[in-house]
């Protein structure tokens, strides 16, 4: 066998076919999952706890043995040449798994050493990834002194040391506050813009909607929905808007047939309406009631609605 199988630049970043996993206790965690993630894609993997997300990621990153099916990373089969496939992947697990008594610079350089990257090259690369993660000023501080958000960014920086073509993130923003989370979103968008494909598992649905172009929803070991984020959201027949109004909202709101209009506070109106409805009808009703709209924005709960709907289907059919 050749020392390493070459990655196919035209192949998808990840190609999973009929993936099954049955644990020793008889639990069937994956029931024939098939999934493609394109090169350069930003792909969300959503699902409730115990749905099979972590098992799927564990198999792709060679931490869990599969019971059946195939996995290819840029055309490299993980059974045929595991080490070549793993060199294409960077993994950011949910738990912190670095030595808290090491410095970020050493953590990155030592990680690169496992992959045979020479020390001089690793030092230059560590500076680059730590600067990208806004951690260069902490490069020589003890890792345990970093904040939770910084530790998360260090995990991402470490994974980027091998210049992976596919970055897999398992709940990367779990337990960090919204401000830190948004900072991490920017980091991930920059990595993706540089050409790295990203797979993200998350509980935060607004995170998936903000970052990802495509998604797959997994429930009870089966993919229940997949496709482009935009077209999946378009399947929802209800659209939500928030309107900021000039002055105060009137005591009696206009009735708009087929739509639900509520005041969330003295200056904000919340509207749910069928997607097919013309917004001009809404503005005409506002006009007649003397309501002047200063600004409007879309509500971002549509993905949540889709998620609930997709995973509730089985229950409804049972």
Automatic annotation (TrEMBL):
It comes from the Bacteria. InterPro entries: AAA+_ATPase, ABC_transporter-like_ATP-bd, ABC_transporter-like_CS, ABC_transporter_ATP-binding, P-loop_NTPase. Residues 14-245 form the ABC transporter domain. One of its GO terms (molecular function) is ATP binding. Gene3D superfamilies: P-loop containing nucleotide triphosphate hydrolases (3.40.50.300). SUPFAM superfamilies: P-loop containing nucleoside triphosphate hydrolases (SSF52540). Pfam families: ABC_tran (PF00005). Keywords: ATP-binding, Nucleotide-binding, Transport. This is ABC transporter ATP-binding protein.
């Amino acid at each position: 066998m050749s020392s390493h199988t070459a990655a196919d630049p035209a192949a998808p970043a990840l190609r999973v076919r009929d993936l099954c996993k049955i644990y020793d206790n008889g639990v069937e965690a994956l029931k024939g999952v098939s999934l493609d993630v394109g090169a350069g894609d930003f792909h969300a993997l959503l699902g409730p706890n115990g749905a099979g997300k972590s098992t799927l990621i564990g198999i792709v990153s060679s931490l869990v043995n599969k019971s059946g099916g195939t996995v290819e990373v840029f055309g490299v089969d993980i059974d045929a040449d595991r080490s070549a496939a793993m060199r294409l992947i960077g993994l950011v697990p949910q738990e912190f798994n670095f030595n808290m008594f090491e410095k970020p610079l050493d953590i990155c350089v030592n990680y690169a050493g496992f992959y045979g990257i020479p020390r001089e090259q690793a030092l230059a690369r560590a500076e680059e990834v730590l600067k990208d993660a806004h951690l260069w000023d902490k490069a020589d501080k003890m890792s345990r002194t970093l904040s939770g958000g910084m530790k998360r960014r260090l995990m991402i920086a470490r994974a980027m040391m091998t210049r992976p073509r596919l970055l897999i993130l398992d709940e990367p923003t779990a337990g960090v506050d919204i401000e830190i989370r948004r900072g991490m979103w920017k980091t991930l968008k920059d990595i993706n813009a540089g050409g790295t494909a990203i797979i993200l598992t998350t509980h935060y649905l607004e995170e998936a909607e903000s970052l990802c172009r495509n998604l797959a929803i997994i429930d009870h070991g089966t993919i229940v929905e997949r496709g482009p984020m935009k077209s999946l959201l378009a399947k929802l027949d209800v659209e939500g808007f928030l309107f900021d109004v000039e002055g105060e909202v009137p005591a009696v709101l206009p009735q708009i047939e087929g739509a639900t209009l509520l005041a969330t506070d003295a200056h904000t109106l919340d509207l749910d309406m069928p997607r097919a409805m013309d917004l001009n009808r809404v503005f005409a009703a506002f006009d007649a009631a003397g309501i002047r709209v200063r600004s409007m924005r879309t509500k971002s709960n549509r993905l949540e609605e889709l998620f609930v709907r997709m995973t509730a289907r089985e229950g409804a059919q049972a």
